[in-house]
Amino acid sequence: MALGKLKTFLWQCTKLNFFVLLLFSLILLFFTDQVFALHEHFYGGTLVAFKRDLYLVMGVYKLLWIFFNAIPYWVLRSMEKAA
């Protein structure tokens, strides 16, 4: 795969994952109580623990997004500019 195609692919993945993270953040910010009410039967914990776990999942997702999409894209972009 050519570096240009890989860079384009990583850029598309970065944008898509950013919007997923943004959507997840908005849901967490505005609709946590409704999501908890929907999943309360399966979760089995309190609302505070549910919010904590959602923030943990969002943080892990953000780290994975940065390490596997954003950083490789920036590296390829800097390699392209250096050449």
Q: Termini distance?
A: 18 Å
What integer is the average pLDDT? 93
Give the ordered list of helices and strands: HHH
Radius of gyration: 17 Å
The largest sheet, given as strand count, sense and whether it forms a barrel, is:
none
Structural class, judged by helices and strands? mainly alpha
The helix content, as a percent range, equals over 70%
- Indicate the proportion of strand residues: under 5%
Tally of strands: 0
Inertia-based shape: elongated
Which stretches are low in confidence, meaning pLDDT under 50 for 5 or more residues running?
A: none
Number of helices: 3
Give a verbal description of the structure.
The protein has 83 residues and is mainly α. It has 3 helices and no strands. Helix 1 (3-30) packs antiparallel against helix 3 (47-82). It is 92% helix and 0% strand. The radius of gyration is 17 Å and the shape is elongated.
